[in-house]
């Protein structure tokens, strides 16, 4: 099987879908002539021309509006937001319009739109350029939310997202773009709503997604060396959640850790913890530990950024807490403690 | 335009007026909930533009859109049923006053976020060009929407890309309780559109025939040349912003002055003076329309409410 | 003690703080001449003049920006968003700027700003005008989030929010504006971060806030008649959370129900459930049940809107599930089941 | 202006140029992370405007702001230390290249969201009027920011309320890789501001003295008459958008042409021609500035990193 980079897999998914369906087009800032700020759309202009690969002004709200409006009349836009942080300027079109038009019209409309964007930290981009917004989108009925952790899923999930008849928020991560993996050349898809058990284990279930899958797998390896068998679940879809797979796993392991790069409060981790104690309350032998970024705006300085984000060591620590081994608590500084540090 | 067309447009204005007056009554009776924004006084703008469109063109409005839906040929029954929150409503009772949709008739809503329809209109215009179509989009919005970022981003991109969208600002002088000169640095709305190199036109929105003439011109050019047009139609709402409006911000004199310029009265006078119809015809139309509105109310009243299952339907496609 | 309406209590809080501190001013759409879309700012223009009570164009992003920018140089804006739904257009200024400026500037700046807005459903305003966004704001470090359920708290909390040196999102509810209660005339404040135990009980703890406090109290009464003693906690502050008070209560009752008007996914309820199983895992005799609005855009039709929102009956049902009495499950239709209903 | 002032401004441009070149080098060495947007080529705009301000006036920039911070008198040491992510940086290492703040000097950042500083500038202008002050705010942004809704909402309110803000668009012809004519329906940026009835002016941003003259005039009027001004300074960035920019979108010829108009070379020629200084002075200044930049690097290099505790500080006041 050919090996390719995450961003090439995304690129291939768009190419294949654009070849398949003339209604699919790509739009965003710097997606065409510049070949994409992160080169995800590289070469699309050359293959499909400027009508289907569209550079825009820096006008996020209308970029999303073009997507929603053109989807109202049957096109299938793939909208790139240069980073998810800028999508905040487009939320009215995405949330107040894209997510609600089908329902408000009594089912007359559907909005087959994908909004793709990298999110997250790791490049020292500072507070305004390092956010994770999955929980905001997960909160909203009418949207679907997807997050690919590797090239294979990136291609398969993006193809499913493009074929889906609903607005899908497709989350990528800048730190993943150049990571490599096997990607079949054939026309496969990865269904939305199905998690991937990346590693089986009997002792603890770790539930994670997107950029955190890497450190989680590394932690699982390290723990295996200590005889601790971790089951790792890559959610892949955040809305809908594959609650069955997660539930079945914790019913087996009786212990869970959720790992997210996002801030903790009202995040995806919180939702998973809530869901699990609705579906598997009686099965837990220990509390679910939540490994998230520290509850602060992302700092620029490299060492501060590093220490703000979950890493292998923090994940190992959380697993050990869950199984009652020696560990450092709290897992993270609480919001309330951070607030006490005021002058 | 021939006699039939002229009378047809007049009749539409009367229908909208009587429909809206009835909606106001039904609201007071508690048959209608939420916000209710009536189109009374502005009928000539919606009728003038929409009557000039082809069936395959698109119309998108804001939350003061009942009249525009009716002008587009949506049955008053289904508009009233929507206001009554019934399953037979145009939006199955899920949209309400602010969210009327009739996609078959290319009536694309019904949007409650001020300025929110303008990017959507650009998106529909983009799709028309994408498919090498020759339809146009007519997008209605108010003078208050002009100060939203969406206005700016939409007009720039529509001009830059040559989108066949006619942006129609219904300038009724107030955004809720705020007079336009307290909200806009430049109260002449059409000037706000000129810095995008979009051809603009200002028209008396109380004069149906003037509006129609402007509409024909704007639509012809947008259709042929694939570029946007901007029209400022100066008009006035005879009622409050919504049924909740205490209405302290306008003088009785001002309202009275504008009522003298009632677009229906003006058009009626024109039709009679030019011998297109007689007082008898006027009465006949009034009767007909009264019956049509009464029928709409009856239909809405007797229609079933949506069921608990409907609550969960159509969230996803 | 004088009896007044919720909106009058808010009005009084602004008056008192504006009299106290010339840097406090009020700005928003229709707050001055129109006297406020919901009459919360009634009479302020007459008392303080147009310099301190400022009507704006319909430009939410710059309205918030005026707030943040003027706070950067020491003013204390009280910004009214006509409803929280429109604040979506201002999120970039609130979240990317207001919440982060202190941190990004290394502590040089502080943003003493309040953003007030009604949120929620109940008036048949439809999908675009009925949203609850507390979880979006709770997610963001740098912000504080407050929600007053009654006139007394409305006045006391708003005064604390205005005196706070951070951006505070102050959530109100349209259905509460005309509700009445006792409000002292003296200059009291209700501290941020302190929940209110509105009713003591040994059997179950119900954690709620804002508009849901009413139906929760009614449910508690009804349950008392059946001999079920419910402890009711009104959070009042959502960020920070008064986790001690909640934890102490569930350590006593061993059972909890969270009640929110918001959608469930990644909501305040999810966060509380996550926090509680971090702080009180061993104390629970039953899963925490989550009573939220159904996971759909808010419909217009009165009967649909009613059945989408939590009410006394649903709360009673959830309590009964928690204590093992006969009850209807699931509490709510799951996101995944709703998604299956597609054509 | 007297000789000292003229030479001072020249020296500032040289300092910014050398500082930025050094920053680029340090970036390649991995001493600086994140995005790095250099001001090389645009020095005359920042120096021309900021040199015309009073200490109590306010300056706010975007993410290409190192040069503006230095022009405002922020020590190169602390700017470099910020780039190095050190605790001694102007923003304590938490802001980085895009978020330089020196509130004592009324340098209000450093903002990474395109257009995001414009509403903040309006807010500061509002506060000045609220306090009956006579300061002004200078707000820098690029040609790409002109198409954001924030531009529109800010200019309307600044004009409507008479806010003492000078909005300075540094039109370097590109927003990242997008030439202005591919992004703006009307490429003459100043025209985009006219529909708010704001007085506009266009100036050659490669000519320090012309910029300074424009700045003096704009600032005087904004201060005296409490109203906004809009200035389009046409300029050019000699480097890529950021260090990551492949830079395929500009021809070598175009870049070479603009390099011929280097604002530093131009000002140096002026000073020599007019006998304000000699080649020897030029060398002396270069030496001095080289030493200052080297000192800034040394300071940054030797400064301590922030500690784990700093991670949690200053989230809340
Ligand atoms: C983004 C947003 N802000 C505020 C509101 C509240 N609101 C509803 S209508 C309205 C006034 C709009 O005035 P205008 O655009 O002139 O339309 P008109 O009501 O006069 O037809 C306002 C402020 C809203 N619905 N959406
Ligand atoms: C809201 C937003 N959208 C997109 C970006 C990504 N971005 C950063 S700089 C830039 C180009 C801005 O160009 P211009 O305003 O001309 O400033 P210049 O870089 O030329 O100084 C873009 C698109 C951003 N930072 N913020
Ligand atoms: Mg109006
Ligand atoms: Mg530029």
How would you portray this structure in words?
The complex is a heterotetramer, with two copies of chain A (343 residues) and two copies of chain B (317 residues). Chain A has 343 residues and is an alpha/beta fold. Chain A has 14 helices and 14 strands. Chain A has helices at 6-20, 44-48, 60-72, 84-87, 91-98, 101-104, 134-138, 151-163, 213-225, 243-253, 268-279, 302-308, 312-322, 335-340, and strands at residues 3-5, 24-28, 53-55, 76-80, 114-119, 144-147, 168-173, 180-182, 196-199, 204-208, 230-234, 237-239, 256-259, 289-291. In chain A, helix 11 links the parallel strand 13 (256-259) and strand 14. The longest helix of chain A is centred in the first third of the chain and has 15 residues, at 6-20. Chain B contains twelve helices and seven strands. Chain B is α/β, with parallel strands linked by helices and 317 residues long. In chain B, helix 1 crosses helix 12 (279-302). The radius of gyration of chain B is 19 Å and the shape is globular. The longest helix of chain B has 26 residues, at 3-28. Chains in contact: A-B, A-C, A-D, B-C, B-D, C-D. The structure holds thiamine diphosphate (TPP) (2 copies) and magnesium ion (2 copies). One thiamine diphosphate sits between chains D (64, 112-114, 142-145, 172, 174-176, 241) and A (29, 58, 60, 82, 86, 89).
Kindly name the structural category of chain B: alpha/beta
| Major β-sheet profile of chain B | 5 strands, parallel
> What structural category arises from helix and sheet content of chain A?
alpha/beta
Number of strands of chain B: 7
Portion of residues within helices of chain B: 40-55%
Low-pLDDT residue spans of chain A: none
Mean pLDDT of chain B: 97
What does the radius of gyration of chain B come to? Answer: 19 Å
Radius of gyration of chain A, in angstroms, nearest whole number: 20 Å
Number of helices of chain A: 14
Beginning-to-end CA distance, first to last residue of chain B: 43 Å
Major sheet size, sense and barrel closure of chain A: 7 strands, mixed
Q: How many H/I helical runs of chain B?
A: 12
Low-confidence stretches of chain B: none
The beta-strand count of chain A equals 14
Strand content of chain A: 15-25%
Helix content of chain A: 25-40%
Ligands bound, unique: thiamine diphosphate, magnesium ion
Please tell me what the overall shape of chain B is: globular
């Amino acid at each position: 099987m050919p090996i390719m980079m995450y961003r090439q897999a995304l690129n291939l998914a768009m190419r294949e879908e654009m070849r398949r369906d003339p209604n699919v087009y790509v739009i965003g800032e710097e997606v065409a002539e510049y070949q994409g700020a992160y080169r995800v759309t590289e070469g699309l202009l050359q293959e499909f021309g400027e009508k289907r690969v569209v550079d825009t002004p820096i006008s996020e709200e209308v970029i999303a509006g073009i997507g929603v409006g053109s989807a109202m009349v049957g096109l299938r836009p793939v909208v790139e937001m240069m980073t998810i942080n800028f999508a905040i300027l487009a939320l009215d079109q995405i949330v107040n319009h894209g997510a609600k038009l089908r329902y408000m019209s009594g089912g007359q409309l559907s909005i087959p739109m994908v909004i793709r964007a990298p999110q997250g930290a790791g490049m020292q981009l500072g507070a305004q350029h390092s956010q994770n917004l999955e929980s905001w989108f997960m909160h909203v009925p009418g949207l679907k939310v997807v997050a690919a952790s590797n090239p294979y899923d990136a291609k398969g999930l993006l193809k499913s997202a493009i074929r889906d008849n609903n607005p899908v928020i497709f989350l990528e991560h800048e730190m993943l773009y150049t990571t490599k993996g096997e990607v079949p050349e054939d026309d496969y898809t990865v269904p939305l709503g199905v998690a991937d058990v990346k590693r089986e284990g009997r002792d603890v279930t770790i539930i994670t997604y997107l950029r955190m899958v890497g450190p989680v797998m590394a932690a699982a390896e390290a723990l295996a060396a200590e005889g601790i068998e971790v089951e790792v679940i890559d959610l892949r879809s955040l809305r809908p959640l594959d609650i069955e797979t997660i539930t079945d796993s914790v019913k087996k392991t009786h212990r869970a850790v959720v790992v997210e790069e996002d801030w903790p409060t009202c995040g995806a981790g919180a939702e998973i913890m809530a869901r699990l104690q609705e579906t598997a309350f009686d099965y837990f032998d220990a509390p679910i530990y939540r490994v998230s970024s520290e509850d602060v705006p992302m700092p620029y300085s490299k060492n501060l950024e590093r220490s703000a984000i979950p890493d292998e060591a923090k994940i190992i620590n959380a697993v050990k807490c869950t199984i009652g081994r020696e560990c450092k608590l709290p897992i993270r500084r609480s919001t309330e403690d951070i607030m006490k540090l005021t002058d | 335009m021939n006699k039939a067309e002229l009378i047809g447009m007049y009749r539409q204005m009367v229908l909208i007026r009587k429909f809206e007056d009835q909606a106001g009554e039904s609201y007071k009776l508690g048959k209608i909930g939420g916000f209710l924004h009536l189109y009374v006084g502005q009928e000539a703008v919606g009728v003038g533009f929409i009557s000039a469109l082809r069936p395959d063109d698109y119309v998108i409005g804001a939350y003061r859109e009942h009249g525009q839906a009716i002008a587009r040929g949506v049955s008053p029954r289904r508009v009233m049923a929507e206001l009554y929150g019934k399953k037979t409503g145009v939006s199955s009772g899920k949209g309400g006053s602010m969210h009327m949709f009739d996609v078959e008739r290319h009536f694309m809503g019904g949007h409650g976020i001020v300025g929110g329809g303008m990017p959507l209109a650009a998106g529909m215009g983009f799709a028309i060009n994408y498919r090498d179509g020759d339809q146009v989009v007519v997008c209605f919005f108010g003078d208050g929407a002009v100060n939203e970022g969406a206005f700016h981003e939409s007009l720039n991109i529509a001009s830059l890309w040559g989108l066949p969208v006619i942006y129609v600002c219904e300038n009724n002088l107030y955004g809720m309780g705020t007079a336009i000169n307290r909200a806009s640095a430049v109260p002449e709305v059409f000037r706000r559109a000129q810095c995008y190199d979009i051809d603009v036109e200002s028209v008396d929105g109380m004069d149906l025939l003037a509006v129609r003439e402007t509409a024909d011109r704007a639509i012809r050019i947008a259709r042929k040349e694939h570029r946007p047009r901007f029209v400022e139609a100066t008009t006035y709402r005879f009622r409050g912003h919504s049924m909740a409006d205490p209405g302290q911000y306008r003088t009785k004199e001002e309202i009275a002055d504008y009522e003298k310029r009632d677009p229906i009265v003006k058009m009626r006078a024109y039709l009679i003076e030019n011998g297109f119809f007689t007082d008898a015809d006027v009465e006949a139309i009034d009767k007909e329309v009264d019956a049509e509105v009464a029928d709409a109310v009856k239909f809405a009243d007797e229609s079933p409410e949506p069921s608990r299952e409907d609550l969960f339907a159509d969230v996803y496609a």
